[in-house]
Amino acid sequence: MDNLNLIEALGQVSTGEAGKVFRGFFRGAAYMIFAEVMAAEVDQLCGPKHQPNEGEMFRAGSSSGKVLLHEEHETITRPRVRKTETNGTTGDVREMGVSRTFDEDWILPLLAV
């Protein structure tokens, strides 16, 4: 939904309904931004898809997870990154920045609301 359609939709409903429409728009926009930031973070850690870095971190598929968005838990599909340890074993990288926290105080300025 682009900005013009959102404004038109909000102008045609009651205040309560406008809040619901806006929250739905916000949730969708935030989810898209979150997915793009996660993908960029994986690219930075592992290299671009199909052109991996020679480093110790590599892509390992995805798994389901949850983020807190506007006081509600949102189910997401998050990328998995694994790291090769010095002893040859591998383990999940859990300290990915954006995957640890997703705060609406951080995202609201990006949406200009």
Quick recap of the structure?
By secondary structure, the protein is an alpha+beta fold. Helices cover 47% and strands 26% of the residues.
Notes on the structure:
By secondary structure, this protein is of the alpha+beta class. The chain has one domain. About 45% of the residues lie in helices and about 25% in strands. A three-stranded antiparallel β-sheet has the order 1-2-3, covered by helices on one side. The protein is elongated.
**Sheet/helix structural class:** alpha+beta
Query: Given the C-alpha coordinates, what overall shape results?
Result: elongated
Order of helices and strands: HHEEEHH
Widest sheet: strand order?
1-2-3
Share of helical residues? 40-55%
